[in-house]
Amino acid sequence: MDQWKAKLIEVGETYPWYTGLLGGRQAEEFGSLQELPLITSAVLEAHYYHQTPDPALAVYRTSGTSSGRRKAIFYSEEDDRRYVEIKTRLFGKLLEGSGCRRALADMGTGHAASTATAIFDRLGLDNRSISFELPIERHIEALTAFRPDLLYTMPSILDHIVYASGDPRAFGIRKIILVGEIAPPQWQRNMAQLFGLDSRDVIDTYGSIEIGTIAYYSHDIGRYLLVDNMIAEGIGTKELGEALEPLGADESVLVLTSLVRSMLPALRFVTYDVVRDLRPVIVDGVEKMSFQSIVKRVGRELKHGEKISVYDIEQVVYRHLEDAMVRVKMHNNALVVAIQSKSATEEAARIIQKELGECIPEIGLMIQNRLLGNIRVTLLPEGERMENGQVKNKKLYY
User: Is residue 216 assigned to a domain?
Assistant: First the structure.
């Protein structure tokens, strides 16, 4: 039996409501995975996110959805065990030959943060963790005192560390593993230089609280590679049926089927993340699914969101500024890019503003067609609080 078909039977047994989406068909009547319904946010809102929690399950809650209610995602002991095993194997591979002995998890909340120390323990690493809710000065103190070889963190937090430290090289960090937000290649190269590292020592990973670990960036291949037991598809916005604008020719919405996740109907789960150039590649004689980059998210609540890529905007900013914290927001139908950087100048801001319209065709065309007002790049003075102080802030604000 195909693995996805066995998963279909399992999901139907665990979630009786799922069988109602199949139009009366039995598992053996489906000839391909693509015949199954998509698990969209609307489906999960109706049947999953707000169900009465089983006390035997761990519950992780995320930020509010379009309904205004926080999403609840459930993990069984088996889910947690598999999650830790997958991530331990991945981290062991990424750290091979690095000589790392000490690790600091400087994270947000959620599943990745809560399991980090267990993963480091399995790898035999002396480890500590620090909450993102503490002032940045405490983060600097922890890095200075503990001097970790490995820093496991989020791009936004790393931005704050760089901005608040005199010399990031002084921490003695050997490897940086990222999770949680978009990390454009130019930004990664800038970070490596600021910390005195080779660009290969900054490694981006990609996951979600619903699915778990999804992919990691391979410097050898120059692409993101999906982890084992994950089936990926790319679909267009039309298939979502949510009146979204079409994507670029090489872009698709990532849809995932996890063969190891049990307490989620992880069959054709729609991530709403847009990836570029999704295709299989051969790695060590084995075919693996891969993509070039994650560029944006789409959704019904995002006006123009399917066209505006924070990834592309940050690529332009980081070509001109090595150290910068960036917020992208829509205000009165105009795109505002707020930048806080020790090295920023008004001249750099003017160049960035000019290039944003020229280098990102989608934005330039929207301005030309009067769907979007002119771009405005603003420089924020040192110490001024940026728009929205949340940890996960690499997104489009309104």
Answer: no
Cα angle, residue 282 at apex, residues 277 and 287 outer, rounded to 5°:
90
- Among candidate residues 242, 274, 297, the one where a domain is terminated: 297
If one counts the domains in the chain, the total is 3
168/90 same-domain check: yes
Global pTM? 0.79
Domain span holding position 14: 3-75+222-297
Backbone angles phi, psi at 139, to 5 degrees: -65, -45
User: In angstroms, rounded to a whole number, what is the distance separating the alpha carbons of residues 245 and 256?
Assistant: 21
The beta-carbon contacts of 350-356 under 8 Å, at least 24 apart in sequence, are 350/377, 351/320, 352/316, 352/317, 352/320, 352/321, 352/377, 353/377, 355/316, 355/319, 356/313, 356/316
Q: What are phi and psi of 160, to 5 degrees?
A: -65, -40
**pLDDT on residue 279:** 98
> With bands split at pLDDT 50, 70 and 90, how would you rate the model's confidence at 186?
confident
Choosing from 274, 297, 320, the residue where a domain stops is 297
Give the closest residue to 256 by CA, choosing from 48, 84, 36: 36
DSSP type of residue 161: H
Same domain membership, residue 169 and residue 146: yes
